[in-house]
Amino acid sequence: MKSSSNFKSVYIVIPAYNERKIIRQVIKRVKKEGYKNIIVVDDGSDDKTFLYAKREEVCVLRHILNRGKGAAIKTGIEAAKHLRAQSVVTIDADGQHNPEEIHFFLNKIKEGFDIVLGTRSMSHDEMPVVKIIANYLGNYFTWFLYGVWVHDSQSGFRAYSKKAMQLMDTKNDRYEYDSEVIREIRRNKLLFCEIPIETRYSSYSLTKSQKQSFINGIRTLAKMVISS
To answer: Could you tell me if residue 173 is inside a domain?
Structure first.
């Protein structure tokens, strides 16, 4: 385990919606890596996610209504800014991301990058085919609308420098937020890089109802076009 003294200005933001079954495990895994500044944002869950997260003695914020993943991330980042964070790492609450990889993101921030994007493997052996197709489409339309090509425009495992947090001005609250960040990279001329990440797909994470569906994907695209 790394010394937590190295991470006093680092905040880990975890947006969560109906993650009671796994949120405590995710928090414990983050703490195991030495990160103590953890902000969980319960996005209007109705399964006691808020109460379960509180048991781990971390900062837990709650939206009264379900506003969307993007809104939860923005709430978390705003809270981190208020707490004088120098950098923020966002990870999903369903256990797909490996907290052992957080330090790779922070190393890139230290090198001078403003935003670090985690890139999942698009191998058929590691990602369901439906998700591969959805991600390729998301990447293409993100490039078409914003002029920046990235290999995984929908990944939730990311890191932001203080400069990026101050300059980003996103409008949308749901899954389109992830692509909107790419627009902000271009608009603010932010220095970014991509790094490969491990992704753990479980029956739990694959069957969660709030994950992107085809219809939600169409809605996301429409919102991206309107806000571009």
So the answer is: yes
